[in-house]
Amino acid sequence: MAGVGPLDELNARLVSCRQCARLVAWREQVAGERRAAFANEEYWGRPVPGFGDPAARLLIVGLAPAAHGGNRTGRMFTGDRSGDWLFRALHRAGFANRPASRALDDGLRLTDAYITAAVRCAPPANRPTPAELGNCRAWLEEEHRLLTGVQVVVCLGAVAYGAVLRLLGGEGTAVPRPRPRFAHGLEVETGGPVLVCSYHPSQQNTFTGRLTEQMLDAVFAAARARLRP
């Protein structure tokens, strides 16, 4: 099929994954029960692929799809309040053509950026188990191999940060030992991409003021400053 590339082929395999029984049961339960506000919508209810620019120099790694966000819409950070914050910041930073992401067909495009997650299915209470993280790591590894231009990785939260360090170490990339403790604004040099850390734009962080829009803007400004021509 014309226009289908390696990332498309990866995502076609990804959406059929049923490796983690707990996650499969939860994502399908949520898709069947639905939230009242979305009662008339058909939920995606499958693993959620990454998306963006295949030539991206910036990779953004989150935790997992939201139960009524990505698990409903089929696209990372789409249709939930975390995404509202993320895409406004990406738009301001020049990585997205729109400041909001509502649905797969809303016209959103990313330039020089690609969004993915450590876990591809919505986990109960947003807490994947170590085994589930391990099962999903192969998808992230393959994705990273295909995204050959990545120079900077923005890690949204401590779980994403740990997943990226394990990914790089497993690939043989030099990573610092001991591992620097996660902190918002932390920048970590590796033998490959530079890691820039941010608190996750979850409501737990944004509603309490732990993460502000100015703080998120500063993360993407730092990420852009680290990109090489």
Quick overview of this protein structure:
Helices cover 38% and strands 10% of the residues.
Features:
single chain, 229 residues, alpha/beta, Uracil-DNA Glycosylase, subunit E, six-stranded mixed sheet, 8 helices, 6 strands, 38% helix, 10% strand, globular
Commentary on this structure:
The chain is α/β, with parallel strands linked by helices and 229 residues long. The protein has one domain (6-226): Uracil-DNA Glycosylase, subunit E. It is built from 8 helices and 6 strands, in the order ααββααβαβαββαα. The protein has helices at residues 6-14, 21-33, 70-73, 81-92, 130-146, 158-170, 203-206, 213-226, and strands at residues 51-52, 58-62, 113-117, 152-156, 187-188, 194-198. A hairpin with a 5-residue loop joins strand 5 (187-188) and strand 6 (194-198). Helix 1 (6-14) packs antiparallel against helix 5.
String of helices and strands: HHEEHHEHEHEEHH
Count of β-strands: 6
Question: CATH class, please?
Answer: Alpha Beta
| Distance N to C terminus | 32 Å
Task: Report the sheet with the most strands, covering strand number, pairing sense and barrel closure.
Answer: 6 strands, mixed
- Structural class given helices, strands, pairing? alpha/beta
Unreliable stretches covering 5 or more consecutive residues? none
